[in-house]
Design goal:
- The chain has strands at 2-4, 12-14, 20-21, 36-37, 47-48, 63-64, 76-77, 92-93, 103-104, 119-120, 127-128, 143-144, 154-155, 170-171.
- It is mostly beta strands.
Amino acid sequence: MCICDEETGGSPTPESMPVPGCNDIWACNYDPLATSNDGSCDYLSCLGCTDEAACNYDPAAIYNDGTCDYASCSVNGCTNPSACNFDPEATINDGSCEYSSCLGCTDENAANYDPTATIDNSSCDYPGCIIPTACNYDSTATSNDGSCEYSSCAGCMVADACNFDPEATISDLCFM
């Protein structure tokens, strides 16, 4: 018996004509249109590791075959980003993290700048004159370098004197 199908333009389509293929839904090559199993079912090509966290994850695998491996891609090292020897490739912390070798002064303007330091330890030294009454006092200096001088800003600070110096900060001889 033939049935006429409107989608095929009225051409007869045999109702009982089998469609060969793999009709086992558990097979890797299952064909939902197959009506007759032709022996082509494949049960191996879609097996593999389906765990994305595994080293041998297979995105094409449909069924997990129990071969997932979690050790072969492991990298031992320091996994703490705050450590001096942090290893971004490490997947297993091996206890080797250390926190002192990268400490130092990270300011390029400091006298003791350490180009190998990656963590500033507040040890930066800025030498200069640290005595506030000196003419060349440097408020940003952290250590005295012996450069303090007291003569360039000395002058008469009496406004009525003929040698009055409005920029003087240290009182010196005045002439009245």
